[in-house]
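DM from R.C. (forwarded with permission)

"hey, sorry to bug you on a friday — could you get me a structure for this? deadline for the figure draft is monday and I only need the backbone to look sensible"
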Amino acid sequence: MRFVRGFSDNGFEPDVIYITSLFTYAYEPVHDVIQWYSEKFKKARIVVGGIYATLCPDHLRETFRNRIDVHQGLVLEVENILPDYSLVPGWRASILFSSRGCIRKCPFCSVPVLEPKFEAKKSIRHFIYPGHKKVIFWDNNILASPYWKDIFNELEELDLEIDFNQGLDARLLDEDVAGKLKKIKIPILRLAYDSKGIRTPLKNTIQLLGRTGTRGRKIIVYCLYNHKDDTPEDFLNRIKDLLE
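My reply, with the result:
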């Protein structure tokens, strides 16, 4: 087995080649890689998965016809395996999901397609690589997990820097959550203001965080624009809300 990035034959003849894909707008480099490996290893089975492959399987199949197999969704066999970070020795943070899916069904979001079932883990200790001092959560909605308090307790004990990279759901952030957040190391706290419908819970959450000691400059708010139900006026009003 070999791990390669980009174009490399790595000195051996593979039987199966697995290629991952990221966001749909970045499909062209994925096509280039598929084309290169298809020509280099004509007898190898090629399996393409990831976000683009899951959301646009027909686009992928139409381009390469019968040359590839498309894997849609997660690879369940590896969901509980610690990644081999020795492959990226310069990286110093453990990236993980303590939950998959989301309880929300936002019309602009692809999570219901990528991770249609909400599932949560009770512990994340085994996902932290030895020597890493930072943990990055890619959960879509960690506060919807029935085990969020167990996870936060572990983070407090581990005393590592934490980044909830996808943001926390303001509609679920109450006094209990705010109290737990104060006990863990979070340089930046991320929220979202994707539609005017969450204005009040977001405002209440920001005020709550202020009362519990989180400075406004430590809060980042994702602000979606250009969804089909959005207007320039709506977006401008949300920006004004945040500035205030």
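R.C.: lifesaver. The first strand starts at residue 16 and ends at 21.
me: no worries. DSSP finds eight helices and ten strands in the chain.
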